[in-house]
Amino acid sequence: MILGITGGIGCGKSTAAKMFESRGFQRLDLDAMVRDDVLARAEVKARLAERFGAEVLAADGSVDRAQVARRVFAEEAELRWLEDLTHPPLFELLRARFAEQPDDRWAVEVPLLFEKKLENWFDFTVCVACAHAQQLARLEQRGLPHALAEQRISKQLPLARKIELADFVLWNEGSLSFLQDQVDQLLHTLPMVC
Description:
- By secondary structure, the chain is α/β, with parallel strands linked by helices.
- The chain folds into 2 domains: 1-25 and 105-194, P-loop containing nucleotide triphosphate hydrolases (Rossmann fold); 32-104, P-loop containing nucleotide triphosphate hydrolases (Rossmann fold, 3-Layer(aba) Sandwich), CATH 3.40.50.300.
- The protein contains 9 helices and 5 strands, in the order βαβααααββαααβα.
- Strands 2-3-1-4-5 form a 5-stranded parallel β-sheet, sandwiched between helices.
- It starts with a strand and ends with a helix.
């Protein structure tokens, strides 16, 4: 079984995915795979430096993700260019992971699941959601200024639409135990719908 876990930025996708992991699922975070693998590739770094200038590379040669984010979140065409650069190798990695362990249960964090029309990759989609004010508060707690938080949220499909499209919704505005109870209830439901 492969679950695609999505939701708005700051809604708690990673928290929910870790809860599935604690219940025996293999967890994959597509953002982490981009950061740790795709952006570490020499050809990707070269293309980024060619497009945005050498300042997007840190002194140690790694990608300065904050510099790249400033450029791509301010300009829609640049964001599309970055996705066109990073998504094909990411999807190749994802296919390889699934092929290595085809019988495992997977919980995959996919921020742009619906935006990139990836629903068919998963047996079920799960949207982790919360109120907009809660979302902003969490992003600001992470150190993202209010204006940048709003900018990042605006680049994603509206949360209400993600809720409509998802097979299941986890509402993440209470305690961790409230979210865990929802995950456990979902896990009891899934065998019935498989």
